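Re: the request from the purification team.
They wanted to know what the chain is likely to look like in 3D before they choose a buffer screen. I agreed to run a prediction and write the result into the notebook, where they can find it.
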Amino acid sequence: MTAPEWENRRGERAVAGVFVVTGAQGFLGRVLSGMLRHQGHRVLGLDRLPGPHPDDRVGDLGEPESWRSAMEAPGIRGVFHLAGRVGEPRDGDQRRAMLRDTLEGTLGLLEWIGGLESRPRLVLASSAAVYGVPASGDGRVRETDPVAPRLLYGVAKAAQEEIVRREVRLGRLEAVIGRLFNVTGPGEGPGSVTGAAALQLAQGASVLRLGRTDTVRDFLDVRDAARALMLLMDRGPSGEVLHVASGVGESVGDRVRRLVRASGRRVAVETVPERVRPEDVPVAVADVSRLRALGFRAEVDPDRSAADLLASLEGKEVSWT
């Protein structure tokens, strides 16, 4: 039987292959795994939580013996590294766990990749948190801006990037780093302001209790984010950093209003002091020139993204393509 073929983003025919997705049961991991499988690829999805697909594997990256034997497959073409803790840790135990999962887990993964005959490419999902406060006065962030994280989460992601870049410099790895900004859409959790607003709407709240809504962020639907990571795997230059974002700034309040319109209800918004984070910067929007030069364009309309997020929390079916 011949290998299945799929059509890549440039309209070219290519033979489907085997890919690994770490963090496969996370918000972005589920969508990325589904898209890859839809295109005919085999996806070995690794996560601490079990998944619904026969190729989903359970394991802790920080404990190689828990997953290495289950990830054996010939001809692995690429690894999408999404696994890791998100959000800012609140105590010493959480801080240690974040550093362990982010750094030790990445080191274990790279050691495993180095032992594969197929020499797969790596796409690392990093974060705009590595920048801290944008260097430019207008809040526009470029890949060449200084890395100066304010959050420990950003420190961990910056160190993770450097671990990957070191392997590239030593000639032991081909890797592309995608720095994600504000990913949103169906399946988003309550840890973000849009996820929190959508969950409250789905639960029938008449008053949305949120943090600051005047900040401006760069929102990108999760399906577009998955397409961008696939593009980086296909065409991204090894050793380079590219933003995974829309390049368009929108206030948090305007994004919440999209959710409210999708609900069809009238609600009030209340700023709750305990939800206001002192580290919030007024404006953070990505320069996406490098990503667009590869041919990327966001496809999901912001209103559809908001409506699908709300629908997913209400238990309705939404398209992940």
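For the purification team: The helical segments are 27-38, 92-114, 152-169, 193-202, 222-235, 252-263, 289-293, 302-313.
Please add any questions underneath this entry.
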